[in-house]
Amino acid sequence: MNLRIAGLLALLAAALVALPLVASPYVLSVATLILYFAYAGQAWNVMMGFAGQLSLGHSLYVGLAGYASAGLFFHYGIGPWAGLWLAIALCTAAGAAIGFLAFRFGISGVYFALLTIAFAEFTRIGFDHIKWLGGPGGLFIKVSQRETWDLANLRGTPEMFYYVMLALAAGAFVLCWLLLRSRAGYYWQAIRENEEAAQALGINTFRWKMLAVVVSAAMTSLAGVFFAFYYNNLFPEQVFHISRSIEIILGPIIGGIGTLFGPILGAAVLTVLADGITELLAALGLEIPGVKQVFYGLVLLVVVMFLPNGIWPTLARRLGLSK
Amino acid sequence: MSPLLEVATVSKSFRGLKAVTEASFDVAKGDIVGLIGPNGAGKTTIFNLVAGVLAPDHGQVRFAGRRIDGLRPDQVCAAGIGRTFQIVKPFAGLSVLDNVTVGALQRAQGVSAAKRHAAKIVERLGLGAKRELPASSLTLPDRKRLEIARALATRPQLLLLDEVMAGLTPTECDQMVGVFRELNRAEGLTILLIEHVMRAVMALARHIVVLNHGEVISRGAPEEVVRDPAVLECYLGEEAEV
Q1: What's the rounded Cα separation, in Å, for the pair A104 and A191?
Q2: What is the Cα–Cα distance from A161 to B234, expressed in whole angstroms?
Q3: Which own/partner pairs from B230-238 qualify as long-range (CB within 8 Å, at least 24 positions apart)?
Q4: Is B100 part of any domain?
Q5: Domain ranges of chain A
Q6: Half-sphere exposure of A29 (CA within 13 A, CB side)
């Protein structure tokens, strides 16, 4: 990593840490959302951007983790930091199951993506029938202590949630940076570029693809725990829905698949613009359902047409950050 | 001394079509063996049987005294066999050095050790000036060199070359022959090559195995093989006049 990137990062980190001091509650909520999508996008990027395995069902891990941690908290008062381990275990197991089925039986590409959708979809339907977790009526966590920080139970002010999400996003960035420079990073990229050649160079592609899925699922599970405790409600219809998966992957696609900054940049661009449009329309007194989705589609269209590698690679070249 | 690679009465059929029938040949340690034959003779099938892409229906493939038939390609690589692809398969988005580093990681302890080893091999194959370029920007001869560099980085005892000269000009071809001779001489690298370019086979191989219709019809030194009537008939007919 060169000096200019390090400088840019330091600046970004300082700005993000200082943000709650100056930001309005609205800006803070948008910033929290950006960090959430940056984090989840980073997690998805491990699978698709690094290892080339397209998942269209990451809402599965968000939902499983959210329900696991929220369920433990709701029924037994077990805090999210403990529930988190169950969430990670469940998501790792789910990821491993999908990965095993696909990679053992040679399902790849589009068919693999379909498999990930299928798992998310039948889990969504399945959760409609789990009365213990509220079924289709949803699971609600009591909203309390909105004034003080209760980190142990993830109950507190919007600032607390902002900083928790910032820590997660920063952690994911560092983890991905380390992963890319490790043996796993080299092997994943080799598999992404050409699986047959990777295997001929001694890479057990099954094992390394499994690792990518499991790491990505485990990372995404933290996003799910945050999601549950931030929004305080979970509905199978929403949390497992494919549109949730699409939201997660749009950031990295628009920012730059396989890059470290892409998921962050993409999340920022999309969230700010989408919220801006919603706000603008509200200010104009217009209410158009689905405008956000149409907008996502338009942005995606423009980026795919003019910046097929995403915004970051082009931006980095302009800024002289890469060759 | 037992040979490094032994292909023993190996057969392989695809839906009733016999691609290879009881083919047997050896490759001694330090030797350079050319596998030739007309199109459809079964060369690529044999290559894939050795490389672990296919498993034989009958027969055995032994490497350094150990059975390797039925192993996966990555296990064959780990056993000490490196290979190139007829249609080059670079990791297009990665730099030249990173491409070779992936191969070097097979035996290196860590990423930095692998990078050092890869840098030496990149230099050796004349790609030093292009090490930071993405593999997608290379010309075909350079892509072939990269293919070889990557395979060499896994520190193989035996290198399998699949039509590595195809598409090269005679000058580039001669350069490549020089590279392999040097590797063979300096490091005792054993080479098994499938090749259509006779110029390269005759210049490089010390022994030749000729396949036709999935059977080994002749083997020996290049000058013997080209005089073998069976070979002349099936394959070298036109070229024998030259």
Answers
A1: 15
A2: 77
A3: B234/B37, B234/B38, B234/B210, B235/B36, B235/B37, B235/B38, B235/B41, B235/B210, B236/B198
A4: no
A5: 26-239
A6: 7
Pick from A181, A189, A204: CB nearest B94: A189
Give residue A284's identity as a one-letter amino acid code: L
Q: Which long-range contacts (CB under 8 A, 24 or more apart) does A124-127 make?
A: A124/A63, A124/A236, A124/A237, A124/A240, A124/A241, A125/A236, A127/A63, A127/A67, A127/A236, A127/A240
pTM, two decimal places:
0.92
Q: Are B35 and B46 in contact (CB under 8 A)?
A: yes
Provide the 8-state DSSP code for B55.
-
The full DSSP string for A214-272 is HHHHHHHHHHHHHHHHHH-EE-HHHHT-HHHHHHHHHHHHHH-TT-SSHHHHHHHHHHH
Answer whether B85 touches A (CB < 8 Å).
yes
Domain assignment present for residue B16? The answer is yes
Indicate yes or no: CB of A202 within 8 angstroms of CB of B77.
yes
Task: State how far the Cα of A234 lies from the Cα of B43, in Å rounded to an integer.
Answer: 60
The pLDDT value recorded for residue A280 is: 84
pLDDT values of chain A reduced to their tens digit, one per residue, 323 residues: 578 888 888 999 999 999 999 989 999 999 999 999 999 999 999 999 999 999 999 999 999 999 999 999 999 989 899 999 999 999 999 999 999 999 999 898 899 999 999 999 999 999 999 999 999 999 998 877 667 788 877 888 899 999 999 999 999 999 999 999 999 999 999 999 999 999 999 999 999 999 999 999 999 999 999 999 999 999 999 999 999 999 999 999 999 999 999 999 999 999 998 888 888 888 888 777 777 778 888 888 888 899 888 999 999 888 877 64
Chain A residues touching chain B at CB-CB below 8 Å:
181-183, 186-187, 189-190, 192-194, 196-205, 258, 323
Chain A residue with the nearest C-alpha to that of B51? A200
Q: What is the CATH number of the domain that holds B161?
A: 3.40.50.300
Domain boundaries, position B71: 5-80+156-240
A-B Cβ pairs (cutoff 8 Å, strict): 75
Report the DSSP pairing between strands B66-67 and B58-63. antiparallel
How near does any CA of chain A get to the CA of B192, in Å? 16
Domain tally for chain B? Answer: 1
Whether the CB of B77 is below 8 Å from some CB of chain A: the reply is yes
**Shortest CA distance to A139 belongs to which of A126, A147, A130?**
A130
- Contact assignment for B74 to A193 by CB distance below 8 Å: no
Q: How far apart are CA A188 and CA B230, in angstroms?
A: 48
ipTM value > 0.85: yes
Q: Cα–Cα distance between B77 and B151 in angstroms, integer?
A: 9
Q: What values do phi and psi take at B182, rounded to 5?
A: -65, -45
A183 → chain B, closest CA residue: B111
Amino acid symbol at B86: Q
CA distance B164 to B161: 6
Mutant choice from B44, B47, B89, B102 vs A, greatest count of A C-beta within 10 A: B102
The minimum CA-CA distance between B239 and chain A, rounded to whole Å, is 34
